[in-house]
């Protein structure tokens, strides 16, 4: 995320009650960002929905095929991010 946009994003998230800013215990000049209970519930709901959608999308594959697909996709990703192995 572009550092120029982070304050606006955090303001929006705080406005929705999903994060809160707290003083840093070690350095009072700094602030930390923490998920609220509402934010934690939202993360859980989104993760659960994503898992359901993924399961539906991959429904035609058995577990061994899913595992193989995952390995192949990771190899492709690594070859573009990390360079050739």
Provide the descriptors you would attach to this structure in a database record.
Winged helix DNA-binding protein; single chain; 2 domains; mainly alpha; 3 helices; 85 residues; elongated; 12% strand; two-stranded antiparallel ribbon; 59% helix
What does this 3D model show about the protein?
By secondary structure, the protein is mainly α. The chain folds into two domains: 6-35, no CATH class; 40-81, no CATH class. The protein is built from three helices and two strands; from the N terminus they run H-E-E-H-H. A two-stranded antiparallel ribbon has the order 1-2. The chain is elongated. The two termini are 28 Å apart. The mean pLDDT is 92. Keywords: DNA-binding. This is Winged helix DNA-binding protein. One of its GO terms (biological process) is response to stress. InterPro entries: HTH_MarR-typ (IPR000835), MarR/SlyA-like (IPR039422), WH-like_DNA-bd_sf (IPR036388), WH_DNA-bd_sf (IPR036390). Residues 1-78 form the HTH marR-type domain.
Report a brief summary of the structure.
One of its GO terms (molecular function) is DNA-binding transcription factor activity. With 85 residues, the chain is mainly alpha-helical.
Strand and helix order: HEEHH
**What is the tally of helical segments?**
3
The CA-CA distance between the termini, in Å, is: 28 Å
Please indicate the percent range of residues in DSSP E strands (runs of 2 or more): 5-15%
The overall pLDDT average reads: 92
C-alpha Rg (nearest Å): 19 Å
Structural class: mainly alpha
**How helical, in percent, are the residues?**
55-70%
Strand order of the largest sheet: 1-2
Poorly predicted parts: none
Main beta sheet: 2 strands, antiparallel
Instruction: Using the alpha-carbon principal axes, give the shape.
Output: elongated
Keywords: DNA-binding
GO molecular function: DNA binding; DNA-binding transcription factor activity
Protein name: Winged helix DNA-binding protein
InterPro entries: HTH_MarR-typ, MarR/SlyA-like, WH-like_DNA-bd_sf, WH_DNA-bd_sf
């Amino acid at each position: 995320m572009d550092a120029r946009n982070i304050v606006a994003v955090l303001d929006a998230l705080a406005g929705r009650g999903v994060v809160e800013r707290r003083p840093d215990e070690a350095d009072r000049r700094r602030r930390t960002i923490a998920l609220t209970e509402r934010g934690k519930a939202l993360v859980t709901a989104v993760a659960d929905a994503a898992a359901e959608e993924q399961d539906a999308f991959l429904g035609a594959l058995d577990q061994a095929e899913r595992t193989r697909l995952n390995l192949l996709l990771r190899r492709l990703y690594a070859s573009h991010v990390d360079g050739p192995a």
